[in-house]
C-alpha cells in the first residue's frame, strides 16, 4: 500500500465582510455564529466575519455586532487587506450596491449577493468583471431564497438541455393567492392581511406586479439556456386584476391560480413571461402553499425536476448566502452563469403571440341581452375556439362574471379577442386571461 | 480600466471510460453525444468517451459503440494513459465493481459511480482512498436518480445543521403504492402490474423489502449529519405486508401511505429507518406519484427543502452521472462526504424505541366476541393510548380488518402491544403498524 501523504497544512480562515445589516444581514451573522464549527468542518477552513458596514451604527438589530470591525464607509470593506469576500446585502439595482459590487470584483475579491434587481440589470457586466479578475461572483440567495436552485441548475442539471424553466418565484404573491383560495377573499382583502402579517410591503407593487419575479426569471433563463441576461424582454403581468371568482372558477376547473414565471427557448427566440396561470391539480406547483417558492426545470435527459422551499426570510436567505461563502472557501466556483459571458448567446425575444395553449378568460359584464353574443362573436372573429363557458350569475367587480376556457390556440388570437371586448361598453373593467399550464 | 487578461489556453478534453454498458451506460453514451456541445460550453472543456468495457461485446444495445475503444478487461480502463475518469456502472456491493473502484482511486483517477450498494458498504474506505490520492469520488446518481440531491445537501444546504432528512427513495415501491391507492389493488396485484410494466424486477425483494432505500438513506445520513456511513444500523421494513385496507384507511384519515427512509440525529445517536409511513395530505411527499423520488431536508436556518424528480431510468441516471463528470471537468469537487473521513463522527445507533409519535396500527382478526377487548387490553397494558378506532367490518387477509390510531407515545410501547397481539390466536397474520409522519 502507498503511504498516506503528509498531512496538508490547515487552510487559513476565509475572511468575510458584510455590507448592509438588515433582516438578512442579521441572519447571516446569526448563522455564521450558530453553525460555526459545523461550517468549518464542511468548508475545510473557518469562515470569519471580520468587518461589517451599514447605514446606522446605532440601530438596534437584536444582534451583537461588537466582535466585528465597523466601517461607516462600505468602500473600506473592499479596501481592507483582511477581507477575502464581500457580501452585498444593500439592495437596489444601482447606486451604492452596484458601486460596491464593482469595487469588490475590480479589487479581485469574491462577491456574494442576494440582489436580484442588480443582477437582472447588471449581471452580465458584473460576471464579465468577475471573469477578468478571476474571482467568484455568487448569488444563490437572489433566486428562490433558501432553495439551492442556482446550484441545482448550474451544476445539478448541467448535463441537460433545459426545455423550460418555470416556477413560483414570489412568496408574497403566493401567500396572497393562497389566502384568496382558502378564504374566498378578494385581492384587496388578501393583500391587506398579507401586509398585516408582514408578508407584503406597505408599497406592494414590486411583488404583486411581478417585477421581483421577473428579475429572478431573467437570471434563471440565462443560466438554463446559456443566453445573455435580458430583463427588458420579460413580459410581466401581476396579480392585481384577479378577483375572487377567478380563484373559484379555477378550482371548479380542477386548477389553482399561481403567479408563474416561465422561460423557454423556442425556435423564434427566448420567451420570458411572468403572469398568473392556471396550474392543473396534478402538477406539484398546485400544492405550493403560502409564502413558499418552487422551481421546475425540464431537462432533455433528467425530465422534470421540482424544488420547493422558503423563498425569503432571514434564515433561508442567510442559508443561501453562506452556502455561496462555503463554495468560495472550498474553491468550488466557476463562471457566474455557468459559462463565460462571451460563450452566452444573444437570443432575440420569442414571438410570444405564436405560443399555442389553452387559456382561461374571465370578463365582468353588464347583465343585459346581447352580451353573450358579443363575446362569442369577438372570439369567433379572432379565431378563438371555446371549450367551455361558465356563467353562474355571480356578481363581482361591478357586473356579472363570465368565465370561459378556450381550446388550444395562439396567444395572439386571445389578445385580439380581448382587445375587442375591452373596448365594449358592456364589459366592465379589464378582461382577465390566464394560460393553463401545459404539463 | 484594467486591460483584459491574456486569454487562457483552452483546457484539454476530459477523457472518460465507461465500465458496464447496460441501460444506464447506454444513457450516458447517448447523453454525452446528444448534448456534446452544450456540455463543453458548460464544463469549459470537451468531455470525451475514450473507452468502454462490458461483459458482452456483441450484445445489441441499440447504440453504436464503435467510436470508442473496447476493453474486455475493465482493469485496462484504469491502466490506460488516456483515461482521466472511470464511470463504474457494473453494480453490486462487492466483486468486480469494488475492485474497479479501488483500482481507479488507487491510480489517482476520478471515480464516478451510481452504485449505492457499494457506497453503503464500502463508501468510507473508498472516500478515504480518494482523499489519500487527492482524486474525486462522485456519486450523485446513487441517491434519488436524476434529482441532484447529493449536491443540494452537500453544497446547497451546507450552511445548515440538518435536523432530519427523509424521503421517497425507491421508485418501485412508490409505483406500487400509487397503484394500490388509485385502483384499490392488493400488494400482490400491484406488484404484478409493476413487473409487467418494467417498474419492478422479477425478484423484487431488493426494492419492496426496502434494502435499496436503506442503501440510499445511509448515504444521505452520512452527508447530512457528518457521521460515518453505517448501513448496518438502518432498520428496514418493506411494503409486502400492506393490504388494500391500509391504503383505504390511511386515505380516510387524510393521509397517504409512502415508503419513507428517514434519518435523524438525536441525543441518543443516529436514527436510520426505512418503513411505510402515513404522510399527511398537507405534506408534499403525499403528492409524489408513480415512480418518482423525493427528498426532504430540514435545516436549522433554511427550513424545509423539498426535491422531486425521476429516481431511476436511463436518462435521469445519466443526467446525474454526467453532472458529476462536469463537476470534475470544472475542478469543482471536494471530499466525498462533504468533509474528510477523519472529520466524520462515529455516531451510535439511536434508541429507536424511545422515539415518540403517533402510529397507525392495523390488525386482521377473527370475527368473534372478545377480540376487541383483547386488543384494547394489550394496548392498555403496553401503555398505548388510542386516539381512534375503526372497524368497518371489511374482510381482507383472512379476517376482519381493525385499524386504529394511537396518541403520541414511544415506539417501544407499540412494539410491545403488537408482540402481545401477534401471539394471540385471534389475530391473523402479522399486525401492521406505521408511524404517522410528523410535520
TrEMBL record, chains A, B:
Family under the similarity heading: Belongs to the homoserine dehydrogenase family.
Residue positions binding L-homoserine: 201
PANTHER family in the record: HOMOSERINE DEHYDROGENASE
Lineage: superkingdom: Bacteria
Keywords: Amino-acid biosynthesis, Methionine biosynthesis, NADP, Oxidoreductase, Threonine biosynthesis
Originating species: Sphingopyxis panaciterrulae
Pathway given in the UniProt record: Amino-acid biosynthesis; L-threonine biosynthesis; L-threonine from L-aspartate: step 3/5; Amino-acid biosynthesis; L-methionine biosynthesis via de novo pathway; L-homoserine from L-aspartate: step 3/3
The protein's enzyme class: oxidoreductase
Classification via Gene3D superfamilies: 3.30.70.260, Dihydrodipicolinate Reductase, domain 2, NAD(P)-binding Rossmann-like Domain
BP terms from Gene Ontology: methionine biosynthetic process; threonine biosynthetic process
UniProt name for this protein: Homoserine dehydrogenase
Cited Pfam families: ACT, Homoserine_dh, NAD_binding_3
EC id: 1.1.1.3
Lineage, top ranks: Bacteria, Pseudomonadati, Pseudomonadota, Alphaproteobacteria, Sphingomonadales
UniProt binding sites for NADPH: 116
GO molecular function: homoserine dehydrogenase activity; NADP binding
Domain ACT span(s) in chain numbering: 360-432
Amino acid at each position: 500500500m502507498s503511504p498516506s501523504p503528509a498531512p496538508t497544512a490547515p487552510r487559513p480562515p476565509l475572511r468575510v465582510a458584510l455590507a448592509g445589516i438588515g433582516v438578512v444581514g442579521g441572519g447571516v451573522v446569526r448563522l455564521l455564529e450558530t453553525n460555526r464549527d459545523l461550517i468549518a468542518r464542511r468548508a475545510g477552513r473557518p469562515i470569519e466575519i471580520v468587518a461589517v458596514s451599514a447605514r446606522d451604527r446605532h440601530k438596534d438589530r437584536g444582534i451583537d455586532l461588537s466582535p466585528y470591525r465597523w466601517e461607516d464607509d462600505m468602500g473600506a470593506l473592499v479596501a481592507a487587506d483582511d477581507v477575502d469576500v464581500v457580501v452585498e446585502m444593500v439592495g437596489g439595482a444601482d447606486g451604492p450596491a452596484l458601486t460596491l459590487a464593482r469595487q469588490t470584483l475590480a479589487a479581485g475579491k469574491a462577491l456574494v449577493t442576494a440582489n436580484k434587481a442588480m443582477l437582472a440589470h447588471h449581471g452580465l457586466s458584473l460576471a464579465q468583471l468577475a471573469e477578468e479578475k478571476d474571482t467568484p461572483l455568487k448569488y444563490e440567495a437572489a433566486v428562490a431564497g433558501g432553495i439551492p436552485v442556482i446550484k441545482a441548475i448550474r451544476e445539478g442539471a448541467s448535463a441537460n438541455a433545459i426545455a423550460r424553466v418555470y416556477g413560483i418565484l414570489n412568496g408574497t404573491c403566493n401567500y396572497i393567492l393562497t389566502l384568496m383560495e382558502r378564504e374566498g377573499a378578494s385581492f384587496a382583502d388578501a393583500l391587506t392581511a398579507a401586509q398585516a402579517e408582514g408578508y407584503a410591503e406597505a408599497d406592494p407593487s414590486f411583488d404583486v406586479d411581478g417585477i421581483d419575479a421577473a428579475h429572478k426569471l431573467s437570471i434563471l433563463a440565462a443560466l438554463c439556456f446559456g443566453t445573455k441576461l435580458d430583463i427588458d424582454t420579460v413580459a410581466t403581468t401581476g396579480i392585481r386584476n384577479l378577483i375572487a371568482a377567478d380563484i373559484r372558477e379555477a378550482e371548479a376547473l380542477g386548477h389553482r391560480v399561481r403567479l408563474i414565471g416561465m422561460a423557454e427557448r423556442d425556435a423564434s427566440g427566448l420567451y420570458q413571461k411572468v403572469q398568473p396561470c392556471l396550474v392543473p391539480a396534478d402538477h406539484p406547483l398546485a400544492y405550493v402553499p403560502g409564502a413558499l417558492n418552487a422551481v421546475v426545470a425540464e431537462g432533455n435527459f433528467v425530465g422534470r425536476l421540482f424544488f420547493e422551499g422558503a423563498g425569503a426570510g432571514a434564515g433561508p436567505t442567510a442559508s443561501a448566502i453562506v452556502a455561496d461563502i462555503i463554495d468560495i472557501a472550498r474553491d468550488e466556483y466557476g463562471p457566474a452563469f455557468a459559462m463565460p459571458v462571451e460563450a452566452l448567446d444573444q437570443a432575440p425575444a420569442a414571438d410570444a403571440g405564436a405560443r399555442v395553449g389553452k387559456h382561461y378568460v374571465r370578463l365582468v359584464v353588464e347583465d343585459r341581452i346581447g352580451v353573450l353574443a358579443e363575446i362569442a362573436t369577438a372570439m369567433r372573429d379572432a379565431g378563438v375556439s371555446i371549450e367551455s363557458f361558465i356563467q353562474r350569475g355571480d356578481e363581482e367587480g361591478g357586473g356579472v362574471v363570465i368565465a370561459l376556457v378556450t381550446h388550444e390556440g395562439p396567444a395572439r388570437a386571445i389578445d385580439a379577442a380581448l382587445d375587442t371586448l375591452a373596448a365594449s361598453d358592456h364589459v366592465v373593467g379589464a378582461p382577465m386571461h390566464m394560460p393553463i399550464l401545459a404539463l
